[in-house]
Specification:
single chain, about 600 residues, alpha+beta, Jelly Rolls, 3 domains, 13-stranded mixed sheet, five-stranded antiparallel sheet, 30 strands, elongated
Length: about 600
């Protein structure tokens, strides 16, 4: 049976499926002429989602065997109802005509069977087999029509076999328990539990559906049109052609009917379903009648498995808190880098040569994924530097073709952060504080006793516009022996106003455990005799000759939205102040900072509408 919280009104959306039910019924009854067969072929060709019924054929065939066995034991009713419910779950949203027809035939045969029970077990068994055979004929007929076909003796519809692969289309700061973070576009393993401890992942399915899971969550990929969510929140978008997509939870099954919806499963297996657009069916696993609850736009349904009567608590009208996530957040997705200064390999270094030169970045801004060449980014000028803990403050590539004599000159030292695109050069280990700034940093002391503010200040070569999504990118060099999450830091405006404030970055879009993080080529680290307390000292104090470090590093990166500092949309920023958050024994190592150009110019290439 089906219970609907709202009466369907979108008849246009269901026209094709209603027409399919009529044509398919005629086909089963042998009344489909050549013209109608051509219409059916064309209908299936433009409604590829009907092909997904084939995925359920195995389960249906197995249940048919259960029908036959239980008929012999006079227990047709519950199994028959379960079978009908499963058939309904696999049909299009408005294709109930065919289901009702099959159900009516089943009820009729059941009545005849009940009237002949006194004739003996042999006849009952024959009747049971007859019913199962009849149902199997229907299913095989569906399979014949809906499975991909090849051309034989006359024109037939050409379709591509279903690709049941499921991909990790995109990830945002994702971290898994017991496994490495999958790379973008990698294939998800079927049936294996994924324990997402933090971040988000987007799965894309063969039928065009997508599901965004938010950590903490436990999920499993069940096939090309199904994901099981044991705990956590899952936002589903099933566009036209992906109807029938399923979300399995420990207590329920949610079946898409062309919609956007979100499923949340808590630690007690209680399930909440919010339908944002379209419709979805909800079935409670322990319900012996397999009642199908139809949810439509604005409906919210909750089920608690501890409630033994299988009650569904439902409400109509959009929930106060809509938890649906249409896409992953704006972020730096990946970067491309090459090797310009190779270092001769050593016997103990098996990690490979690494990279040192940034070529381009791929970033999502305002939901649109864009690619920028480094030449398109807005450069910086070094305004201030004050170290308060670490004297290792300059780096250079470790190749033999790099002269350390350059560091004797102030312009060369400034250029380590200002002019090059190398990820192995930087003005690193600036000072910091555990307390974010609430006032302008002291860059040039103008009073007796004034102390320069620990940190690093930069000015952009041209103002950076607070545009859609992130506006600034920050790369740091992170040793493999340091925490892979990267070093937290504060970023503040150069000049505070009542609307502006400090923003603290505690997580990187690309950290050392991210598949997008790249191993850096070996580099030289230069140490000062005393802490450089000003930019002038950074540029003029002598250093040692530099050590070629045996320990390798990766390039971590994060995108910064000026809105997080309080800048209004459309406002511009001339420069920023960076400080280590002083939350551990390591300090930020900036190797590349740049602003992003406005979204409108053509030198940014939009790759996708969202990711």
């Amino acid at each position: 049976m089906t219970e609907s919280f709202n009466t369907p009104t979108d008849s246009a959306r269901g026209f094709d499926e209603d027409r399919f039910a009529v044509l398919w019924t005629d086909f089963l009854e042998g009344q489909l002429d050549a013209a109608a067969r051509a219409e059916l072929d064309a209908l299936l060709n433009r409604n590829a989602h009907l092909l997904t019924l084939a995925v359920n054929l195995y389960q249906t065939h197995r249940r048919l065997g259960m029908v036959a066995g239980n008929l012999a034991a006079d227990t047709l009713a519950p199994i028959g109802e379960r079978f009908v419910a499963d058939v309904m779950a696999g049909l299009p949203a408005n294709g109930e005509m065919l289901t009702q027809s099959v159900m009516a035939q089943l009820d009729g045969i059941k009545a005849n069977t009940e009237g002949s029970r006194s004739t003996g077990s042999g006849q009952r068994r024959s009747t049971a087999l007859l019913i199962a055979s009849g149902l199997l004929a229907v299913v095989l007929g569906v399979a014949f029509t809906l499975l991909p076909r090849q051309e034989v003796a006359g024109p037939m519809m050409h379709t591509t076999p279903l690709d049941a692969s499921v991909r990790f289309a995109s990830l945002a700061r994702a971290r898994f328990v017991g496994r490495e973070t999958p790379a973008e576009q990698s294939i998800a393993s079927r049936g294996e539990p994924y324990v997402l401890s933090r971040g988000l992942v987007e799965l894309c399915f063969a039928n065009g559906a997508s599901a965004i899971l938010e950590g903490p969550a436990v999920f499993r990929v069940c096939g090309g049109d199904c994901v099981a969510v044991d705990a956590g929140r899952c936002s589903v978008h099933a566009p036209e052609g992906a109807e029938g997509f399923r979300v399995e939870t420990p207590a329920t099954q949610v079946i898409d009917r062309g919609t956007r919806f979100v499923v949340h499963v808590d630690e007690t297996s209680s399930t909440e379903v919010q339908v944002i657009e379209g419709a979805a069916d909800l079935i409670v696993r322990t319900d012996p009648k397999a009642t199908i609850y139809r949810l439509e736009s604005g409906d919210v349904a909750r089920h608690d498995p501890a409630n033994r009567d299988n009650a569904i608590v439902a409400s109509t009208g959009m929930a106060e808190s809509v938890t649906y996530r249409p896409r992953l957040p704006d972020r730096l997705i990946r970067y491309d880098a090459s090797l310009e200064y190779p270092v001769p390999p050593t016997g103990g270094d098996a990690l490979g040569p690494g990279v040192d030169t940034l070529e381009s970045i791929v970033i999502q801004r305002g939901g649109v994924v864009r690619r920028y060449d480094v030449a398109d980014l807005i450069g910086v000028q070094l305004l201030h530097f004050h170290a308060n803990r670490n004297r290792n403050n300059l780096t250079l590539p470790g190749g033999d073709n790099v002269s350390t004599e350059l560091l004797r000159l102030a312009p060369a030292r400034r250029g380590l952060l200002e002019e090059d695109r190398l990820l192995t050069t930087g003005v690193i280990n600036p000072g910091g504080t555990s307390h974010p700034l609430t006032h302008d940093a002291v860059l040039t002391p103008d009073a007796i006793g004034a102390v320069p503010t620990p940190g690093l200040a930069i000015a952009f070569s041209q103002p950076v516009l607070n545009d859609a999504g992130p506006d600034v990118i920050f790369f740091e060099l992170q040793m493999l022996t340091d925490p892979p999450e990267g070093d937290a830091f504060h970023v503040s405006p150069l000049r505070f106003t009542p609307d502006l404030h400090t923003h603290t970055v505690t997580a990187y879009d690309i950290d050392s455990l991210s598949p997008a993080s790249q191993l850096l080529a070996r580099f030289r680290l230069f140490t000062f005799d005393t802490l450089p307390g000003s930019l002038d000292e950074l540029l003029t104090l002598p250093t040692n000759m530099g050590n070629l470090l045996p320990v390798r590093a990766k390039a971590n990166a994060v995108a910064i939205d000026l809105s997080d500092l309080g800048y209004a949309e459309g406002a511009t920023c001339d420069g920023l102040f960076f400080q280590d958050a002083d939350d551990n024994q390591t300090t930020i190592d900036p190797v590349f900072i740049a602003g992003l150009p406005p979204v409108a110019p053509s030198h940014s290439v939009a790759l996708e509408t969202s990711q």
